[in-house]
Design brief:
Elements lengths: L1 E6 L3 E8 L2 E9 L6 H14 L9 E6 L2 H14 L5 E2 L9 E2 L9 H14 L3 E6 L2 E7 L4 E9 L1 H10 L20 H28 L7 E6 L2 H7 L5 E2 L3 H13 L19
Parallel strand pairs: 1-4, 4-5, 6-9, 7-10, 10-11
Antiparallel strand pairs: 1-2, 2-3, 7-8, 8-9
Helix pairs in contact: 1-2, 3-7, 5-6
């Protein structure tokens, strides 16, 4: 079985594949203070809850935007699963042309999402990931990764609002029934949720205009915590796929597994851009 980790700033999504089928998945909190032993024991508990054993894992792939946790999980995989993981980064084959000034600057999660979305939805594409940051990734009709945009995530925006004001409370991030809030709580919720719908629709319109595409010809795929809520009130999001990153990790693994030896052998990853 293939064990896949998507390590983000706020959450870590874990998936277990049997062949090409996702059989189990979990979401845990990213904690930079945890040791590899603590994460290893946590994985043991998750596995036991599903009747799985460490020995069921044949290989591991990791996508991470948190460098110190990358090292923690690399060690954990080697110690607990006796597997040297494949880490998404320089030198791996993605099967996607990247037209970014410096490809090394692109977060691994954005590359993985783009690979999965092209595989499943074709092109042209805009991929939205509602995580700690809200990211837009743009794929043209030639299936080339052009770049995108990064905005503060909804959670970050809410935290900043609460921290920088004296009387505004922290609220639950749910979509209010009406745009015009009648209470402070509903007004904040409206500004955040409907405001981000406007951000999404406005950015999609501008991206389509810049590329010279008809907006209706672009598939807009959303993933991440609040994707469903934004999708309901957005005029431009066409697909929601919460397993997008895990699917992309599976695809990248398949494109590199012939170069990657599994149990107990550390893969060689050459310096250079993703290709």
């Amino acid at each position: 079985m293939l064990l896949a980790f998507d390590i983000g700033n706020t959450n870590i999504v874990i998936g277990l594949f049997e062949g090409d089928r996702l059989t189990s998945h979990w979401r845990i909190t990213s904690d930079r203070q945890k040791t590899y032993d603590e994460y290893g024991l946590l994985l043991d508990q998750l596995f036991q809850s599903c009747g799985l054993k460490r020995s069921d894992v044949d290989d591991v792939i990791i996508s991470s935007v948190v460098p110190n946790l990358t090292d923690v999980f690399r060690t954990m995989c080697e110690r607990y699963f006796e597997v040297a993981p494949l880490v998404v980064g320089n030198g791996l084959k993605t099967g996607m042309s990247i037209r970014y000034d410096n490809p090394k600057e692109i977060g691994a999660d954005r590359i993985v999402n783009a690979v999965a979305a092209i595989e499943q939805y074709g092109a042209p594409l805009i991929i939205l990931d509602f995580g700690t940051a809200t990211t837009f990734c743009v794929i043209n009709d030639k299936k080339e990764y052009l770049g995108g945009a990064i905005a503060p995530g909804i959670g970050i925006s809410l935290n900043a609002l609460v921290e920088k004001t004296a009387q505004l409370p922290k609220v639950e991030m749910t979509v209010p029934d009406k745009v015009i809030g009648k209470t402070t709580v509903s007004a904040i919720q409206s500004g955040l949720l409907y405001g981000y719908c406007g951000l999404v629709d406005g950015m999609v319109h501008r991206i389509a205009e810049e590329l010279g595409y008809n907006e209706k010809d672009i598939t807009v795929v959303a993933t991440g915590g609040l994707a469903e809520g934004i999708h309901t009130h957005s005029h431009t999001i066409t697909e929601v796929d919460q397993m997008l990153t895990l699917k992309g990790l599976l695809t990248i693994y398949h494109r590199n597994e012939k170069l990657h030896h599994t149990k107990g052998v550390k893969p060689e990853q050459k310096d250079g851009a993703l290709c």
